[in-house]
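# step 3/5: fold
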Amino acid sequence: MINVIYTKDFKKSFKKKDKFIREKTFERVRLFREDPFNVLLDNHKLSGEYEGSSSINITGNFRAIFKYINKDTVVFSDIGTHPELYE
């Protein structure tokens, strides 16, 4: 199972989200820890500003950005809507 670490920025953004998004985030991170490439997550590598990081879907519009530290550990660095993160 994947170990997950959350940055201070992730925690700050997470706290600002509504209850539905926070609950969905817990569900998706739990799924990620069990199967990082589950089709529901749409786990994919990022480019540009986020080169070296990856993203998973929380909902249709919300994403969580993370980076692998090693094969067993990831650090989630931010969460937000597609426009909040990428535009």
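# step 4/5: annotate
Residues 19-34 form the longest helix (16 residues).
# step 5/5: archive (pending)
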